[in-house]
Amino acid sequence: MSHPPFNDSYLGTPPWDIGRPQGEFVGLAKAGEIRGRVLDVGCGTGENAILFSRFGTEVWGIDSAPLAIDKARKKSKERGARVRFEVEDALHLDRLGRRFDIITDCGLFHVFSDVERITFAESLKAALEKHGTYFMLCFSTKEPEWGGPRRVSEEEIRHVFGRGWKVNHVRDAEIETTLQEAKVRALLSSITND
């Protein structure tokens, strides 16, 4: 797995685990953007995937951290949600053996190195239907440096998804964490598998 160190974060409650879905994804779901077969990559304890189960026909959540998946499965069962949670590597989505209409990512892309980002885009291609959409929420370069994950610019996103993809939009957004009162400045991208 690419990022096993994140597993230990789930011995407690990591700052990105806010106990509810991210507001940006709630907005997408309410707008009808989340539909069909949905995959949430880097799903953590499953809040977004559980939300999507009310809108999608089939929802999967994957994460490389076994502790996160254990928590997600328990949460999903308690809430009566129908989500398949699996320990998988987002850099090898071809191993899932299926394609999705929508793939969502909250805070995964920004942990990857430049080389991993290219591999990740290829991995997404293997799991996303032709004309399917990838929604990505990541830290923005507009967020001040106080630590935390690497910041991402719109130019970097457009570079990684420059060939074989259609970048529908990259817009300013927010990520909620448990660390700060203020929300983190982020980018929400809509990218279609062209």
Question: Could you characterize what this model shows?
Answer:
- With 194 residues, this protein is α/β, with parallel strands linked by helices.
- It contains 6 helices and 7 strands; from the N terminus they run ααβαβαββαβαββ.
- It has a 7-stranded mixed sheet, sandwiched between helices.
Q: Helical element count?
A: 6
Whole-number tally of structural domains:
1
Shape: globular
- Mind telling me the C-alpha Rg? 15 Å
How many β-strand runs? 7
Give the termini separation: 28 Å
Mean pLDDT metric:
93
CATH architecture: 3-Layer(aba) Sandwich
> Largest sheet, order of strands side by side?
3-2-1-4-5-7-6
Protein structure class: alpha/beta
- How do the SSEs run, as a string of H and E? HHEHEHEEHEHEE
Major β-sheet annotation: 7 strands, mixed
The stretches of 5 or more residues where confidence is low (pLDDT under 50) are none
Q: What is the CATH superfamily label?
A: Vaccinia Virus protein VP39
| CATH level 1 class label | Alpha Beta
Strand content: 25-35%
Helix content: 25-40%
User: And the CATH topology?
Assistant: Rossmann fold
Give a brief outline of the structure.
By secondary structure, the protein is of the alpha/beta class. The chain has six helices and seven strands; from the N terminus they run H-H-E-H-E-H-E-E-H-E-H-E-E.
